[in-house]
Amino acid sequence: MVTCNGSMLPGPIYLFETKPITMKPGNFTLPFFVSPYSILISISRFSLPVFLLLFISHSQVFAARHPTVMPSGGSETMRTNLYLLNDNGSTVLADGVLAEYHNNYHDGFTLEDARKFTNIRENLGLNRYGTILAIERRPLITTEDTLFFKLWKTTRRNYQLEFIANNLEHPGLQAYLEDAYLNTNTPLLLNGTTKVSFTINPDAASANVDRFRIIYQTPFALVPLPVQFTNIKGYELNNRIFVEWEVANEANLEAYEVERSGDGAVFQSVQRIAPNGTNRPIDNYSITDEAPLAGNNFYRVKSIDRDGTKKYSTVVRVAINKKQAGAISIYPNPIRGNRLNIQFINTLTGEYRFRLINQTGQVVYVGKLQVSSGNTTQTLSTNSNLSAGIYRLEITSPDKSVRVKQAVVQE
Question: Does 142 map to a domain?
Fold first, then answer.
């Protein structure tokens, strides 16, 4: 009978061993989860310390021995978890890996490392010289190092990477997550948790298995990084278009210019703003286009350095569709309590989806309504009374078009 922190493991355990090993009575302990399907466990009452990597599949548990003696002294680790990120902001653990550093460990793939078991769905692994690992053990970082991720079996949806660093703080050492698709470098904490969200979209390049890697550098090896656009989005509200963007590594910057195009090819400047000049790891900006074009509006942001160097963000598209079916409004507005009356006039029938977002960008409500008549009023009820303030209500119609309405909540 095997227990893990008091919980029964399902089914028998099969040891993939070239030689039998002798177990003494004792409980399995679970230091962390590698994924929903694979677990690293240590058995403390062996004649020698033994580590097993378990692969859970239905009613059976398969185990591969990992015969490594843990080194003495503090552990320096970078644990990476992959989550499914839902529309309401909740997350579901999909997979994870661990990198551990000590001078008793070696570069390259050795018996100190643990190979990756393949999951049915999303997979996250560490790629070292062509071998995919769930656990990679490496020498202590002196001036620089790189962790190469392999991410596969993803689908078109939102995800989140969680980086949990422990005892990696050394004088001058810095870490960045490099996203080869967005061409961004996001700073990572070296003793704490950093979360980075990303999206797999219809562009095949967004699902490149080698999209991410962690780069460790010190001031002796560090090359100054240019400003990086980490996010950009646009949306329509009351016949105006709002463009918002986020940047990292903002330094020596002269200005930002927001450019607009009607065809996605020829762009013209619509607004220029000065940088915040705060030298924070992340900065956020926004502008309002009071007179957008009818139809498609393509936007991009250009950063201009003091030496004249220019860099562009990705392009976002926002449509002002004057032929959009019918009208949708919130009535009355302002509102009180937890009820929003949604009025439909000459609209499409079918399912409408709603997201209510507060002024800090937090999604406070997600819901849907089935509309069987083009002229009707239906009610959305949140779980609790809404705090006073201004909210955005994002409405997705049956034809997948999106409109945004402003809702004012009074006490």
Answer: yes
Length of the chain: 411
Instruction: Identify any residues that bridge with 191 across adjacent strands, giving them in sequence order.
Output: none
* 250 closest CA partner among 188, 305, 175, 212: 305
Question: Given phi > 0 = left and psi -120 to 50 = alpha, else beta, which region is 327?
Answer: beta
- Measuring CA to CA, which residue among 219, 39, 232 is closest to residue 117? 39
Q: How many domains does the chain have?
A: 4
Distance CA 234, CA 263 (A): 16
Task: Confirm if 122 and 201 have CB atoms less than 8 A apart.
Answer: no
pTM for this one?
0.45
The string of pLDDT tens digits covering residues 4-48 is: 333 333 333 333 333 333 434 444 444 333 333 344 443 333 333
Tell whether 94 and 185 lie within a shared domain. yes
**Confidence band for 75, pLDDT divided at 50, 70 and 90:** confident
Q: Is residue 71 domain-resident?
A: no
As given in the structure block, the two tokens for residue 214 are 């962690």
On whether residue 20 sits in a domain, the answer given is yes
Which contacts of 347-351 are long-range, i.e. CB under 8 A and separated by 24 or more positions? Answer: 347/371, 347/374, 347/375, 347/397, 348/374, 348/397, 348/398, 348/399, 349/373, 349/374, 349/398, 350/397, 350/398, 351/398
Cα separation, 38 vs 129, whole angstroms = 22
Indicate whether 178 and 81 sit together in one domain.
yes
Considering the domain architecture, whether residues 315 and 363 belong to the same structural domain is answered as no
Q: Are residues 154 and 210 in the same domain?
A: yes
How far apart CA 330 and CA 353 sit, in angstroms, is 14
Closest to 116 (Cα-Cα) out of 34, 214, 207 = 34
Tell me how far the alpha carbon of residue 54 is from its chain's centroid.
27
Enclosing domain of residue 123: 76-217
Give a yes or no: residue 393 inside a domain.
Answer: yes
Structure tokens at 2: 């095997």
